[in-house]
Every structure is written in C-alpha cells, then in structure tokens.
Amino acid sequence: MEEYLSEYENYLKRENLSANTLENYKRDVKLFMEYIISKNLDIKDVTEQWGNRYVIELKNSKKSLNTIKRNISSLKKFYSFLVTKGEVNINPFIIKTVGSSKRIDIKYLTYDEIEKLIDAPDENTVKGIRDKAMIEIMYGTGIKVTELINLKLDNINLKDHFLLFNKSEEERFIPIGRYCVNIMKKYLSYRKELDKFQSEYVFLNVKGEPLTRQGFWKIIKEYAKEINIDKEINCTVLRHSFAMHLLENGADISVVQELLGLTYLNSAEVYKSAIKNRKIVDEYIKNHPRA
C-alpha cells in the first residue's frame, strides 16, 4: 500500500497545496490504511459498506465534526485518484456526509420534455434557428452555459462532428450528433444576418453581440413557459439532462465525466446516485399498494 501513498503524495504536490493541507491528507490516508490492514483488507477491497463502517469508527472515536469531515474529504480525493489511475472501480467515500441532511437534487428534463423544448423555436426566423441550435448543442454535448456563450467558430468542426476546447494546455474533445450538426449548419448559413461586427463568437444577439448567460436563461425560460413545462428551469438543466439521459441508457460513468469536463469522477457520480434514487421511488410507486 505504501506505493499508492507515495504516488498520491507526488500527485498532491503537483496541486500546489499548503504544507499543512498536504500533511493532513497524508495523515488521514495513513490512518485509513492502518484501519483496513487491521481488517485484513486491501485498498482494492474497500466497498461503500466498508466506507460507511469507517465513518462510524471515526464518529465513535469522539473526533471533532470538522476532523471527521476532513477525513472523509481526504479519502474521497484519494480514491478519486485511484479510480483515475484505474486501480479501483468505485469511490467508497463518494457521497458521505456528516452532520448534515442536505441531499443533492439533480433537476433535469425527461426526453419528451427535451424534444418539445428543441421543437419550440420557430425555424422560419433567424432567432428561432439560433435558439434551436443553442438548445440542441447544449443538450447534445453537455457543455456549460459559459462554454456555450463563449463558443467560437474555430471550436466547431461540423465536417467531422466534434467541438474542440483548449483549456490550460489541455484539449477537450466533444462529439456532436447528426441532429446538432444539421441545425448548426442551418444556423451558420443565416448567422451573417446577425453578425454586424465580424465576430468570432458563434451565438449572437440581434445587436450582433455575443449572447450573455442571462440572455440564454431568459430564452430557455420563455420556451419552457410556452410549452407548459412545469419545472424549475435554470442554466444547468440541459447539462444535467445530457448526463442523466446518457447514464440511463447505459453510458459508462467515466465517459460522462470526460464529456462534462469534470476533473474528478466523484463529481459525475452525483448523477449516478440521482438515477438510483429515482429508480427506488419508481419501484415503490409501482409496487406498493398504498403508494
């Protein structure tokens, strides 16, 4: 197990953490290693059940709440590192909370609602074509709203069906489907009617300026009201829908992580947990006589 700790320490050093934070992370992981050795376990044998047991051990040890939270945070980070390296398949500390009943609530649309939202804009107008292209590309790629409004012409390759972002010297490749390609081709053919200043940005308002986050949110909200979607609509709902629908249809969690541009796998695991919770509710409603 020492080799894992040594590699992890080198990994942490590259994150430019303070000496105190680095020492805390190392100490928390060492303490956990001592625990699993006492249980005759290997790092790779630790399940969510063992993660729960360890959290209970920490609570029973009369450590402060902040210390317990830090331990859990340290171990989440450690196992995210191991998952990324391919040493383990799951993070047993993925959604462990202490001293809080807060539940992560993923708001997303059903596929039928998504189709209605995409079909809502009027394709007989340039604005409608633009709006449909924005909704299609948001749902079809899972990019953030900030990435959408900052999307530039040289980020798009419609011939080979992909978007390419460059961030901190790393390239992020995102495939785009045929529906998205088709509406983007149509929009780009009409975009010149909006482009008054030879802008490098893809999506422009009627003044020829790049759309803002608030502008996009208003557009989505108006169409949702028009088609009677009785749900809270915000700037992340399409991104959440993208992730949830991929996972519901069997996509690998690590692929979803990569597509969303998430650094750690545990960030994407939140969607997986939401699907599991929804299935539990669906089964209860379906099978309980008093549901």
In words, what does this structure look like?
Residues 1-83 form the Core-binding (CB) domain. One of its GO terms (molecular function) is DNA binding. One of its GO terms (biological process) is DNA recombination. Site-specific tyrosine recombinase, which acts by catalyzing the cutting and rejoining of the recombining DNA molecules. The chain has helices at residues 2-13, 19-38, 48-60, 65-85, 111-119, 126-141, 145-149, 178-190, 213-226, 237-248, 253-260, 265-287; strands at residues 156-157, 162-167, 170-175. By secondary structure, the protein is mainly alpha-helical. The chain folds into two domains: 2-85, Tyrosine recombinase, N-terminal domain (DNA polymerase, domain 1); 111-280, Orthogonal Bundle (hpI Integrase, Chain A). It has a three-stranded antiparallel β-sheet, with no helix packed on it. β2 (162-167) and β3 (170-175) form a beta hairpin. The termini are far apart.
Spatial order of strands in the largest sheet? 1-2-3
Cα distance spanning the termini:
49 Å
- Based on secondary structure, the structural category is mainly alpha
Q: What's the story with the biggest beta sheet?
A: 3 strands, antiparallel
Query: What's the assembly state of these chains?
Result: single chain
Pfam family, one: Phage_int_SAM_1
Domain Tyr recombinase: 104-285
Protein name: Tyrosine recombinase XerD
InterPro entries: CB, DNA_brk_join_enz, Integrase-like_cat_sf, Integrase_catalytic, Integrase_recombinase_N, Integrase_SAM-like_N, Tyrosine_recombinase_XerCD
